[in-house]
Amino acid sequence: MKTEVKQEEIGIELEVPKTEEELIAQEEKKEEQNPVAAWNPRTQIGKEVKAGRIKDIDSILSSGKKILEPEIVDSLISLEKDLLLVGQSKGKFGGGKRRAWRQTQKKTMEGNVLTFSSLAVVGDRNGHVGIGLGKSKETLPSREKAVRLAKLNVIKVTRGCGNFDCSCSEPHSIPFIVEGKCGSVKIKLIPAPQGTGLVVGDECKKILRLAGIRDIYSYTQGYGRSTINFASACIEALKNTGVLK
Ligand SMILES: [Zn+2]
Fold first, then answer.
1. Fold of 80-156
2. Which of 37, 70, 91, 139 is deepest in the core (most CB within 10 A)?
């Protein structure tokens, strides 16, 4: 405390440059507080978003241009994130408890080389959702990669009420029956009346919840236990909500 008071009295010593470690810590704090403010855009869309010329994410998504910077999505909509359980724990008694990290091994001359992957889902609970699969040699970097990719893969989900028993006009379900497929997994999403809830597998529930869908029936075929294919099939189905066949 004493040294601080002295520095304030002198007033000149405060301008002495700080050590590198302090500066790095300061910058990290700034980025944590507001990642968008410290963002230096490199792509054309990024520059326009930062300048405030693009204020709507739907205009980017409908133009068909690829989003290459996650900060674009961050600054346009407020996202929530979640992890899907893609892996399972090892060990005695069969293991098999679902985990957020999938652990795989490659056999080499030096020994087993581990890779962790994780599947993240981001959404604004208002018609925008995306998933991303990140891989890394450790667990936490793979989650960060997954969240970044999920932001880049954000899609628009058209919501509505396509159930004949429920003649409301609120966007609590989907406008018509849609189907999606990935690997052997086929999923069919069917509009449901208000108050039904999400009648799907748990991992798909997380995606639909973040997309802002409250009521749905579903029919799944194939090996739905492979979470990555199940989630991709769900996203494929949601993409089809924008196309009336
Ligand atoms: Zn309805």
1. Double Stranded RNA Binding Domain (3.30.160)
2. 70
